[in-house]
Amino acid sequence: MLDSLLALGGLVLLRDSVEWEGRSLLKALVKKSALCGEQVHILGCEVSEEEFREGFDSDINNRLVYHDFFRDPLNWSKTGEALPGGPLGALRAMCNRTDLGPVTIALDSLSWLLLHLPCTTLCQTLHTVSHQDSCPPGDGSPVGKVHVLGLLHEELHGPGPMGALSSLAQTEVTLGGIMGQASARILCRRPRQRPTDQTQWFSILPDFSLDLQEGPSIESQPHSDPHIPPVDPTAHLTFNLHLSKKEREARDNLTLPFQFSSEKQEALLRPRPSQATSHIFYEPDAYDDLDQEDPDDDLDI
Amino acid sequence: MFPELNNLLNTTPDRAEQGKLTLLCDAKTDGSFLVHHFLSFYLKANCKVCFVALIQSFSHYNIVGQKLGVNLTMARERGQLVFLEGLKSAVDIFFQAQEKPHPLQFLREANAGNLKPLFEFVREALKPVDSGEAGWTYPVLLVDDLSVLLSLGLGAVAVLDFIHYCRATVCWELKGNVVVLVHDSGDVEDEENDILLNGLSHQSHLILRAEGLATGFCRDVHGQLRILWRRPSQSTSQRDQSLTYQYKIQDRSVSFFAKGMSPAVL
Fold first, then answer.
1. Which end of chain B lies in a sparser environment, N or C, as judged by fewer CB atoms within 10 Å?
2. Cβ under 8 Å to B: A residues 88-147
3. ipTM (interface pTM)
4. In the CATH hierarchy, which top-level class contains the domain B3-128+135-213?
5. How many angstroms separate the CA of residue B66 from the nearest CA in chain A?
6. Would I find Disulfide bond among this entry's keywords (chain B) (predicted)?
7. What distances in angstroms separate CA B128 from CA A70, A258, B139, one per listed residue?
8. What's the mean pLDDT in A265-272?
9. By the 8 A CB rule, do A123 and A165 touch?
10. Which secondary structure element, helix H or strand E, spans residue A66, and what is its range?
């Protein structure tokens, strides 16, 4: 499922956290797009261009068009080197692209854009960019799919902006993991189909290719440890809890007093008059009051 | 600097990494011992250090520095240390006429401003001079601390932008290091501080988090230090590493030990 993320068009949100970072997955998806022959634009706001391109081969690097907003995003240096319009201008320029092949736009990161731009403006621009393929130009030529990959740091935003971006996105990938093994929870919304929710375990190799995995093995979970043998609690006691064979047989042969066995049933059904009824032998104490009257006589029952 | 902490971080002044952002944070305890450690570490590594000290006076850092084997007065005189004493210069801004923008100019502005003057002060302090003087190894920016800027009226995004520009200039352009301290508000709901802390955590290469013990104050164990290495540069197959140690602060050093292995209880 993770490797077919780019099959649909539209906005793909990569939600990461401090413990499980998402930039390497973003780079892996960028590499995939580049290898498929797509044109790839990267809006780099958080890391330098060298750091983003690190790990890619030269043929992939040649396909990446990097828009550098790391060095001077707010135009503080006023040297004129900063790209006009800032990141928003660059994003809007991609809405009006002239060539119509398939394109992938990677936003590193969408969190940076959300902190610096109003949420409504950003959502409107993202909607326009990711839905270019649904409004073909007048001459009827086919428009290639547009994929927008947005890296979003979950902890930085409240539920409002996160909800707005979720509703815009066709696919949401939430990164997590257990014990060093990374997982991606993929929520995919296709038009006119039921949304699908899957979890895929994966790892990213040093050359940024995706390695899909089965998941952590059951034995490696911390709460069951097969190396410690189960301890016998009856082993070192000062009293004897075990039964010998004769004792066990005698115990099995014992009938319980309230067990209604067939012998007891017959004895009750055929009372023998010769059988003496049970006697009670009572020795009264000196303090006993042998009053023959019934103490319950005065009750009006 | 504390040799035991150097061992835990697997670094020495001679072979420290460059181009890194280190985030120090403390929760329910005082993490300033980490600031003193890095100040003396980088001075011993012969780096040019710009210290934006907003919390304590120069003499405070000097006294602690002398216990750790560095003389801040001499370092400042020979040009190795550029010290912005926030407590003193914040008063100057109101009572003295300023020709050019003061680094802490935002204190005079009514609306939440930005930290561009402070960034320009840092850039000016750390820019390489090729006058042939004693060559410092690489520049280092140290900030103590960033949470107080939020208390002074700046927004979290303004502080994040300042650190962004410092990272771009000091870490990427000049191949130096940046070390900042942020307090974690913990139970108190402070959205701006949380945005600042999480935003910096995502950008950091190394996070050192000093926490008080969950059970309260203890005489022999002053707290617990969590070390998280992020964004390893060499290979991405190595996941982020995390270690936890407990510590006790003494007069001239800090001793670290594994959890539960304090000498007082063994």
1. C
2. 111, 115-116
3. 0.87
4. alpha beta
5. 36
6. no
7. 21, 98, 8
8. 71
9. yes
10. strand A64-68
